[in-house]
Amino acid sequence: MIDSVLIDELKSLVEPGKVLLDADSLNAYGKDWTKQFAPAPSAIVFPKTIGEVQAIVRWANERRVALVPSGGRTGLSAAAVAANGEVVVAFDYMSQILAFNEFDRTAVCQPGVVTAQLQQFAEEKGLYYPVDFASAGSSQIGGNIGTNAGGIKVIRYGMTRNWVAGLKVVTGTGELLELNKDLIKNATGYDLRQLFIGAEGTLGFVVEATMRLDRAPQNLTAMVLGAAELDAIMPVLHAFQSRIDLTAFEFFSDKALAKVMARGDVPAPFESECPYYALLEFEASTEEVANAALETFEHCVEQGWVLDGVMSQSEQQLQNLWKLREYISETISHFTPYKNDISVTVSQVPPFLKEIDALVAEHYPDFEIVWFGHIGDGNLHLNILKPAEMDTAEFFGKCATVNKWVFEIVARYNGSISAEHGVGMTKRDYLGYSRSDAEIAYMKAIKAVFDPNGIMNPGKIFV
């Protein structure tokens, strides 16, 4: 923890009232959605300008004070957790969309712009910001860039990094860099912009981002299909992709659906009960596209891959079908889930999922497993729910044992231990399952260049 002299120095760098020390603020801003680490920051500081961010970083660099960036705090890897007396730099007051260019189709955002705010802004301009996920209403652009957030539209639109035209960042020495300058084509050596995307604030802080926008999709339509077995999901994906361009292809198990149904907020998609479900979305821009989707559905039924299905006929029905998938995380949060966010190549998903499912069932038969994910891009979310009678510490301890076994399988499939949630503190000890020793050494060397005194989000990604 830092002393009162340093606190006074910090207060002098920002406007009055923009440094908080009360217990409630320290607790709220010192954590994210993970529950494995207790928040213990020294202070919360709220800069309003790039100049103030630079001043904070220069002060921290001189005084050797560790800084942790804080956005919407919706992360699931503890990358925004301040557990060791760090100063939290919260970007709530840097939340404006500063400029819009209709010809370049870009919006210049401060890091505290909420994802849904940018989506709404794009819609008002007749455009579309496609990076979307359940926490869009509270996650912030700076945090999305820091973790290279993915979400439900990756199969069509890719990850956050695909939509970042340019960045302004403050490095660990307080230097301001302007990266790529919003260019589409720029072949002038290393693209430092890409280093900061997914770096979780360990190289520096994003203080401004130029985000690309796209044309608005036309007549988005969703289908929910019930599958007889897991092995049918990939043939269904292939069948639809061969006929139409999908904007999403999601997967969830009957257990995941049961948790959502128990809330009573949304109707069941159809009467049939199936062990696995796929939710796919596409633009029904013409009658021919809609007919192709129905013909493909009929083909899947004939092949025995699909038992039942429904296609949205209105905007309300589209939203209800999506709720079946989007409400899963919130619904299971009450069961203290241990989350794993893993990925392999799309073709390997069925055997990969079966192998892990069998592993957990064998060693912990009393644990309830809820599967869902963006299966169209090879990303699966393994959620182990805590038994009600089990102590939380004991539960997390057993899950840590499961982690090692799960990640050994991930490594064998040449997969990733973190597909879209980042590494943070929850995955840093397992980084070697996805990255070689040489890669990790180079990553540490890169951090040393941008953050020579190790003040920028220390202890995240690697020790």
Could you please describe the fold and organization of this structure?
This protein is 34% helix and 21% strand. The protein is globular, with a radius of gyration of 23 Å. It has 15 helices and 18 strands. Strand 17 (368-373) and strand 18 (379-385) form a beta hairpin. It has a 7-stranded antiparallel β-sheet with strand order 15-12-14-13-17-18-16, with helices on both faces. A 5-stranded antiparallel β-sheet has the order 5-6-10-8-9. The chain has 4 domains: 4-90, Uridine Diphospho-n-acetylenolpyruvylglucosamine Reductase, domain 2; 97-215, Uridine Diphospho-n-acetylenolpyruvylglucosamine Reductase, domain 3 (2-Layer Sandwich), CATH 3.30.465; 220-329, Alpha-Beta Plaits; 336-423 and 430-437, Alpha-Beta Plaits (2-Layer Sandwich). The model has no long low-confidence stretch (mean pLDDT 94). With 463 residues, it is an alpha+beta fold.
Instruction: Give the radius of gyration.
Output: 23 Å
Number of domains: 4
| Separation of the first and last Cα atoms | 19 Å
* Helix fraction bin: 25-40%
Q: Which outline best applies?
A: globular
Instruction: Characterize the largest beta sheet: strand count, sense, and whether it forms a barrel.
Output: 7 strands, antiparallel
Mean of all residue-level pLDDT scores: 94
CATH topology name of the largest domain: Uridine Diphospho-n-acetylenolpyruvylglucosamine Reductase, domain 3
Strand order of the largest sheet: 15-12-14-13-17-18-16
Number of strands: 18
| Strand percentage | 15-25%
Please count the helical segments.
15
Structural class: alpha+beta
Which segments are poorly predicted (pLDDT under 50) over 5 or more consecutive residues?
none
CATH architectural grouping of the largest domain: 2-Layer Sandwich
Oligomer category: single chain
